[in-house]
Design goal:
alpha/beta, single chain, 11 strands, elongated, nine-stranded mixed beta sheet, about 550 residues
């Protein structure tokens, strides 16, 4: 009789063939209509279906799962450096208001002018010649961007256009793959360290070390591929010169920044669109510090100024930030496209060279101070203001009392001292300017400002920066520091916000109306707002008129 396995196979075959595979005393091989060869084939097929096929399915599923894991590992762990678990944790911490790690800050935005120009060229090419032309321009720009980083190494080789394309492509491929490899190594090292501290099994430790070793082999392989591509792209003599530099490099990705010529042709661009309290000065301070912290000084810093001026303290601090650049021996150029008056010009004259557009407003070298006085109105309302001071000149002019001639004289003396500092600062930074002629508070436009020596050249900032790229071959990078509105995401969602910027000493139409015809309470509220109450960002003492480097010329209000 057949054994149990053969009987099971006979039953299975019988279901598919319709034969009585389990007749008494019979076997699969001696059933009617079947010879021994057919029975053997059917037994083999049944064995494959029951035993071999599940094994193959397990193997194929395992292989597919492995590749899915590898894809997910690269996509979510090394792609952008953010693992899902880490991302969820960071979001929870941000909701709780925990400060962000300073090393992970992305507040300083860097924009490459050449990339913007290339993107515009690509868009135009797409409209004129189609998508293929657009793609070619973008790819060429990416290669050039890599070559710019290596210019200190490749510059002495005097590459031809064909060699530049080939070398740029090889470097771009290497840089992309090497950065991906390094991100993966960081994650592997972190996983291995956590496992070692927890005391993982020897098998797990061996696997982690094996993966790290594989990544090191991958590094050598990528470098070998880079050298091979460079050897094919360059003549023997040029490749030998390049090899001498590469052999000395400890890290091929850092060889560009280690080159002494790497930053000599870089121009950094800063922008200052100032308000009356120079609230952007904190942003300017961080941008200047970022430039001065570089290992090598750039060729030039360009500051684009647009401001009618404002508080003495705010614009004095802004000018001090620009003097930090000049004191380091870095060329500083100021570009004025619309207005740099009073405090704005105080900043501009810190530069080695000033450019302005043909109708930019320049000058207003002077100081202004004012405060409303409601003493008569308050007296009519029966309101008496009692004030105690220690120090003869603690208060001179206030809104609540009629100033004496002595008070007015002292206020004028204080204002004159600030004016003399302003005009002396202009004279020290622009010796050719006749301060007695220009420091009158007047505003001049374009050519008139040039004739009086307030600026050095007529031109706009876009044209100047474009010439730096096209004519001088500079790398132009615009810096922009973004302040965080709120540390807590939850707080932002609940409606918490920063106080509005209300310039101290600013008196609007509503304030004037309250002073003229409102109640006594309206008068007091208007005076509090005008003097810079709790909502003001000015640091000037409350209750005293604040001097300002601020243009107040009818010319600035004229329109074409």
């Amino acid at each position: 009789s057949a054994d149990p396995l053969e009987q099971m196979l006979m039953q299975l075959v019988g279901r598919f063939t319709g034969a009585n595979a389990t007749s008494a005393g019979g076997t699969l091989s001696n059933q009617p209509g079947m010879d021994s060869g057919s029975g053997t084939i059917l037994v083999g097929l049944a064995g494959f279906a029951l035993i071999i096929f599940p094994i193959l399915k397990f193997i194929v599923t395992g292989i597919i799962g492995f590749f899915v894991y590898r894809f997910a590992d690269r996509r979510f762990q090394t792609g952008g450096g953010k693992k899902p678990a880490k991302l969820v944790k960071k979001l929870a911490e941000r909701f709780a208001g925990k400060p962000q790690d300073a090393l992970e800050s992305r507040q300083l935005k860097v924009t490459r002018l050449t990339d913007e120009l290339s993107a515009m060229r690509a868009s135009i090419a797409k409209g004129e010649s189609g998508g293929a032309a657009e793609k070619l321009i973008r790819e060429a720009s990416r290669r050039d961007r890599t070559l710019v980083a290596w210019r200190g190494v490749l510059g002495p080789l005097e590459l031809t256009d064909e060699e530049r394309v080939a070398v740029g492509k090889a470097l771009a491929v290497y840089a992309k793959k090497e950065m991906e490899r390094r991100e993966e190594v960081v994650d592997l090292q972190s996983s291995w360290l956590k496992g070692a501290l927890k005391g993982v099994s020897p098998l797990g430790s061996f696997y982690s070390r094996w993966r790290l070793g594989s990544e090191m082999d991958k590094q050598l392989s990528l470098e070998a591929q880079l050298f091979s591509a460079l050897r094919e792209a360059l003549p023997e003599a040029k490749f030998e010169k390049l090899s001498a530099r590469l052999v000395e490099a400890e890290d091929l990705l850092c060889i560009a920044s280690a080159s002494p010529e790497a930053s000599q042709q870089t121009v950094y661009v800063l922008s200052f669109n100032g308000d009356t309290v120079a609230s952007q000065v904190a942003q300017l301070q961080r941008e200047v510090s970022a430039i001065l912290a570089l290992p090598r000084a750039p060729e030039e810093v360009v500051i684009r100024i647009g401001s009618p001026g404002g508080t003495v303290t705010g614009y004095g601090l802004a000018a001090a930030q620009l003097m930090r650049i000049r004191d380091r021996g870095i060329k500083l150029t100021a570009c004025v496209d619309e207005v740099a008056a009073s405090g704005g010009y105080l900043m501009a004259c810190c530069a080695d060279r000033i450019l302005c557009s043909p109708f930019a407003a320049i000058g207003s070298i002077g100081v202004i101070s004012g405060v409303p006085n409601a003493a008569d109105r308050l007296e009519r309302e029966g309101v008496k203001f009692i004030e105690t001071t220690a120090g003869k000149w603690k208060r001179t002019i206030t809104p609540f009392k009629v100033p004496s001639s002595e008070d007015l004289a002292k206020a004028q003396l204080d204002l004159q001292a600030v004016y003399e500092q302003f005009s002396s600062f202009v004279k020290a930074n622009r010796p050719a300017v006749d301060v007695d002629v220009v420091a009158t508070g007047e505003v001049w436009f374009g050519q008139d400002a040039l004739n009086r020596g307030l600026v050095d050249e007529l031109g706009t900032s876009p044209e100047y920066l474009l010439s730096a790229v096209t004519s001088r071959g500079c790398e132009v990078l615009a810096l922009n520091w973004k302040e965080k509105a709120n540390e807590s995401i939850l707080g932002a969602l609940l409606g918490e916000s920063q106080p509005a910027l209300n310039g101290a000493g600013g008196y609007g139409v509503g304030s004037a109306a309250n002073l003229a015809g409102g109640t006594a309470a309206d008068v007091l509220r208007a005076l509090e707002a005008g003097l810079g109450g709790s909502s003001s960002v000015s640091n000037w003492p409350i209750g005293t008129p604040e001097p300002r480097f601020q243009a107040d010329s009818p010319l600035l209000r004229d329109a074409f």
